[in-house]
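Fold this complex.
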Amino acid sequence: MGILEVKGVGKRFGGLQALGDVNLSVQENSVHAIIGPNGAGKSTLLNCLVGKLIPDTGTVMFDGQSVLGRKPHEINQMGISRVFQTPEIFSDLTVLENVMIPCFARRDGSFRMHAIEQVAREGSIIEQAETMLADVNMLEKRDFHAGSLSRGDKRRLEMAMCLVQEPRLLLLDEPTAGMSRADTNNTIALLKEINEKRSITMAIIEHDMHVVFSLADRITVLAQGTPLVEDTPEKIKGHPKVREAYLGEAQH
Amino acid sequence: MLGLNRKDGVLFLIVVVMVIFAPFILNPFPSDSSLAQFNAGYPDLMQRFLIFGIFAVGFNILFGLTGYLSFGHAAFLGAGSYAGVWMFKLLGMNVLYAITASVLVAGLFALFIGFISLRRSGIYFSILTLAFAQMSYALAYSVLTPITNGETGLQLSQNDPRILEGASAADGSLPVPSLFGLETRATHTLDLGAWSFDFNAGYYICGVIMILAFYLSIRIFRSPFGMMLRAVKSNQQRMNYTGLNPRPYTLAAFVISGMFAGLAGGLMVSMDPLAGAERMLWTRSGEVVLMTILGGAGTLIGPVLGAGFIKYFENIFSRINDQVLHQWFAFLPDGFENAMVFLVHPFVGKGWHLTLGILFMLVVIFLPGGLVEGGQRIGRLFRRKKKTDQAAGTAQGQNTPAE
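Structure:
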């Protein structure tokens, strides 16, 4: 039984059946990639996992507990973090503050009214955030405004914000979209390291086959809202149905 | 100092010193000189500086930190005022009864309005708060007359129970608000040569409370709570996916700023025990928005500066009439004098709103960070000059290590 079990999930937007009958099982400590052509329902599926959308049918179980009906912040508190296609960070805050916020969220839960204590006195939180920044090689930028960072740095910062929470499952929505080849390779290396060193389970949505085949342990191919096939990268590469539905199309 | 870092500590000290010495600072002109009309150091106006300072500091906790623009904060000012007068009527004339009740009533009122309004953000939130405030105004004016005394306004009367003190003073006159016997209207006038300075008990009561409110605001700005409020303004989506629920944070900020507004209302009636429905009118709500933006939203001292600036304009600039203008331009030949008076006339006296409006536009266009940003720019200009001087100094062969 995997850490994330998706069973029979369907979602309809008006006349469009975005997700048909999706079954998915993500094993602990693995990297599970979800690929598929545009409009296959990848993002809809992801949004169903994090509470942004509520599926019409089916169940989503995380670590034996149902995710459905919970709000995004509650699902995050269960141990699911999410990296967005365009980095979502607190642009008006400093880099250090960006990482301190998830530290507070982890220690104090979804709301705590400490209005009189001072941030400067929160030694252990600052230390925790600084250690995390050092891990992603961003410590020297701790006092920068997050909004002024380069795109690659924003991505690394967002990753640091997710990792400092020590999530059990990290969801990544096209983490290398719009990146240069060099940045993409750096991101692959970073993700590999995260998966191996911190043993964090990852589910990743990606267009770039290079990224998928260098990271994933298992791949699910989604087409028109239903999973076409689920297998190891080697098998997927040679699978005739996949070539037809996806890889073939990509070679226009 | 007091748990503040050095920079905030200095700022806080400056505010304390300004409040203590305001009767001197605001009265720079001898009382019989022609410039005496620019003196702002009379008790009534000085109290208003502080009270609106508190109002704006509280508003800034909501608007400056979370970015939620409330257009109905006058409702809390009004609710605080009514609660304060009722305390004077029912309990006694001690200022503490009034402001305690004002803060509590305004807080509860803000909890109710905030709970509903904060379901929306952006312009919809602003409209909801505006609607609530206008509803409160209309209710206070009509249906709630038994509580608010309608258009006459709520005031003290001889028949009030005042259970802690008895109905009226010994000579049958209406009692006045006081702090443990110190009447808020008590004023000591100090004549120094041609100058005359007023020291008013009510002003210093407001001063102490304003300093406390300002201190609280600094602490909130520098707390993890304050950081979360800035995070709300920056990116609510990321907040949600970081396991934080933005709603209780915004609601808490809304209630705190409502309580500050209530405190301001309570102090208003402590200085002059009268509360009318027009205190809830939307123009009052708009005024505090102007103050905060003019001074610099999201900065510590900005709202205080903005409040002082607007109140000064309202009370001093509006008093420059044609007669005064003729005096100013008397040195010109008659034709020119009349022409100048004609030109300046729309901008002063009753036209002070026009000047304020133009200044507001200039600030928003050229100094989006408000008066505080203006100050910072001037400061930076000086520092850069100093740095280039130093650089020139080091270049002349002094071997001081580079920083």
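The domain at 4-79+167-250 of chain A is CATH 3.40.50.300 (Rossmann fold).
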